[in-house]
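General statements about sequence and structure are easier to judge against a single worked case. In the encoding step, the backbone of a single protein was reduced to a row of integers, each denoting a local shape. The record that follows shows the chain in one-letter code together with its fold in token form.
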Amino acid sequence: MAASSVLLRAVPGPVAQMRSVPPAHGIETSTTLLAPSICGVRGFGVGRSGYGVCVRKSVLRGFRAQSGATNVERGAEITSGSGKDNNVVFVAGATGNVGSRVVRELVKSGFQVRAGVRAVAKGQALLEAAKLAKTSSSEKEPVELVECDLEKQDTIANSLGNAGVVVCSIGASEKEISDVTGPYRIDYKATENLIKAATRAKVNHFILVTSLGTTKLGWPASILNLFWGVLIWKAKAEKALEDSGLPYTIVRPGGMERPTDTYKETHNLRLASRDTWFGGQVSNLQVAELIANCVSNLDRARFKVLEAVAETTAPLRPIEELLAAVPAERR
């Protein structure tokens, strides 16, 4: 479950100060419909870390200022009766293709992030590779790496800290396709452990990343079940979240193995409700922007299942507008 993310640094606050980093890829122009990614956060051939651990505080460095999330007026949304702080977000799978981008987008929007990665050494290597250097005089760093093994349920609570929002972007790695237990252990049980811990901690909102085709058979999404029934286990994780009593958002992306971060320059995001699509593509960055926007607009995202693809023929619309157009499944 190796990760290949680039961590960065930004200044916390209503508007972060950043330096642009040139895109590493050319513009993606393919519009071929593919099956959704195996774990909802990446596809065959592109590894993404699953759940994880880490132990030292850190900050993020400059990144491209292409974000779908807006600076938010959080006011009364900052805390609820639980005493949790919605300005603090716990991200599980924070070194993955989606998770690392979620961290960046949240920092851009002024959130504090508690970022979980699976291996201490891996987390520190990411920090060193990014050559992090503090750019703010503020003593409070925007990102803290925290220790969290999601297969050990009794260790999760401390990792959540005072986070009011939890984002779960974990999944079994196709690089370990010979592990028949992977989807069951990670996509279902580890996710369920995090849901249970979040429920006991009385967090205010839980955002879960899964995949297209999770609860209804359809081509080509259903072919992913050849990976040891991964969509079946993702469906059970979704059901565990829906039954938890927590306010939630479920994000079901299309295939993310081919689109680069520049995909959004030629393909606009589309959102739909549960079981609308079974094929399509979307970039990791577009999914991360959507998640950050959900965190910034919890009332608008509450109790929604959001299927996400990107198409050349789709009109360019603000994410807030797309989000508002998808009906909530409960009130």
